[in-house]
């Protein structure tokens, strides 16, 4: 059985950009990063992408290419004290690269500690995150960083990594290894290089003698227990959150709770789950049950105060409520319709009666003239034109087929009669 000092994934980590596989859109010869490295003029950045696609590796390569002092922190076990320590060291050295893995786990105060050093250029910050930085990185810090989106590795890239490991790794190159079939290997890797290497290493270590033939049956046979462990560590959270959301959308509280439990057992960040519930409450429920948004928002606020294990009760309550609720995607389709219309018709002028008139000149130009204030009329409504002339009478909002929105449809029909076809 092969004896390893370090995992295969770590042994195969390249230290030159030419050996980096994947992410051609940000590392090819014409990319911003490549040109910046060539000119030695790198700026701070956030690397956003799923696990195992090269965020840490790319940060290591950048430090080598830039030939600068390099310090790495994990947001999981570091705080303001460590951040300030390395900023002080960087200041004495002139400048340094500070890599922060899982930067989305840093609190606002921890991120604030980075601002001045990033702005002054004392450190070149490279943050790695699996979460949308728009939500997890404070705006002042985000505005000082270039965000690069990394993608899951495709089949060709994964196979290139696999063949390279077999041929060049200090331990595997001494074994007779052949990839006879690759479907299971690629599918279970899920675009994640680390999973790929772990699977290969698992299978090779399972063979006491050569040759080692990697085929679908072998991968599935030896990987079953290991794959379950991967899930428990949360490395497949994109697939699981997808199943979770689709189960709620499909009004199945049982499946929804199962996928929720999978995420909880995997140690998933409860804010990640709550944020998805908040989005779903408008995207898939909306006006069919407006209370859903209130409950989802209260859930998000609560889990920021109450962490595991108690917050799982709040997540469970919210999940079952949303799953059992009436559904409507009218909020989604309506804003898409509106944006499509804006895209197709351009910047149409605002009707004069709807314009603001804070100055005498604007009033002389008839801004706001003939505007009818609805609250002065019966039922707080007066028929008027609120759309630009070119698109007047266009129906953008189509109420969903549910009890609440049927009531809304009837009210709109009563108010607007045949104008919008309600």
> What low-confidence regions span 5 or more consecutive residues with pLDDT below 50?
225-235
What is the helical fraction, as a range of percent?
A: 40-55%
Question: In what order do the strands lie side by side in the largest sheet?
Answer: 2-3-4-1-5
Task: Provide the residue-averaged pLDDT.
Answer: 90
The second-level CATH architecture of the largest domain is 3-Layer(aba) Sandwich
**Rg calculated over all Cα atoms:** 28 Å
What is the global morphology? globular
At CATH level 3, the topology of the largest domain is Rossmann fold
**Beta strand %:** 5-15%
Structure, explained:
This protein is α/β, with parallel strands linked by helices. It folds into 4 domains: 23-149, 3-Layer(aba) Sandwich (Rossmann fold); 155-232, Helicase, Ruva Protein, domain 3 (Orthogonal Bundle); 237-324, Zinc Finger, Delta Prime, domain 3, CATH 1.20.272; 349-416, Orthogonal Bundle (post-AAA+ oligomerization domain-like), CATH 1.10.3710. Helix content is 52%, strand content 8%. The strands form 2 sheets. Strands 2-3-4-1-5 form a 5-stranded parallel β-sheet, sandwiched between helices. Strand 3, helix 6 (108-120) and strand 4 form a beta-alpha-beta unit. Helix 9 crosses helix 11, helix 10 crosses helix 11 and helix 14 (253-265) packs antiparallel against helix 17. It starts with 7 loop residues before the first helix and ends in a 6-residue tail after the last helix.
